Amino acid sequence: MTIYRLFDEPVFPDPEEAEPDGLLAVGGDLSPERLLTAYANGIFPWYCEESPILWWSTNPRLALIPEELHVPRSLRRTINRETFTFTLDTHFETVIRRCACCPRPGQEGTWIVDEMIEAYSLLHRLGYAHSVEAWQGDALVGGLYGVSLGSVFFGESMFYSVPDASKAAFAVFVEQLRKWRFTLIDCQQTTKHLLRFGARELQRFRFLAKLREGMDAPTREGVWRFDDRE
Q1: What is the DSSP letter of 144?
Q2: What residue ranges do the domains of the chain occupy?
């Protein structure tokens, strides 16, 4: 069993050397340079407050090709009835904090620790991390956030306080990414509702090949807005 220890330089071992559970390395920091290097190589941080920073490259890897998005009929009706309104990048830190405190079945505590909130909020200010917000009137009732590089969006977490709010936000967001010619959405962990959206598990080597293709595209930096919803 080989787990690599990271030091000051923002470099990573080959993700194909990850353990069967996906664990690749330990240590380092959450600086923007290291985080962006990690994502560009199919690696992401995931750990709890009591542990050091852990870096993962899971196999298989759940991913969604935007062109393959499937929106269930009932959710499409919810979106068309304008039950919610949607924004981009208007309340990033609120979204990530709501994700951090959102209870999840079988999970105690959160992996979105204060260190992570600070690191991704900085990435947002630098134009690489983005949030999607779902609203009912003036109430923020759902959302998600993640990181964007090239033509790839790396989804991190979702929250909702009203049924279907985060699902509707995700569906509308993926449709926007499709218009922007994004080629890949990294979903990291397999869940039933993401599978229903058309996501599928890719073997690591296939995921990394599609990731490398996506890294050839220019990164859409800065504040995002929906093309026709604001």
Answers
A1: E
A2: 4-59, 62-215
Give yes or no for a contact between 118 and 130, defined as CB atoms under 8 angstroms apart: no
β-pairing, 85-88 vs 129-136, is antiparallel
33: left (phi over 0), alpha (psi -120 to 50) or beta: alpha
**CA-to-CA distance for 220 and 151, rounded, in angstroms?**
8
For 62-215, CATH gives 3.40.630.70
3-state helix, strand, coil in the chain (%, to 5): 35, 25, 40
Rounded Cα distance, 139 and 15, in Å = 41
Phi/psi region, residue 63 (left: phi>0; alpha: psi -120 to 50; beta: rest), is beta
**CATH topology classification for 4-59:** Alpha-Beta Plaits (3.30.70)
User: pLDDT digits over 162-188, tens only?
Assistant: 999 999 999 999 999 999 999 999 999
Q: Tokens standing for 107?
A: 């999970």
pTM, whole model, 2 decimals? 0.94
Give bridge partners of residue 185 from the DSSP assignment: 64, 153
Distance from C-alpha of 187 to C-alpha of 46, rounded to nearest angstrom: 14
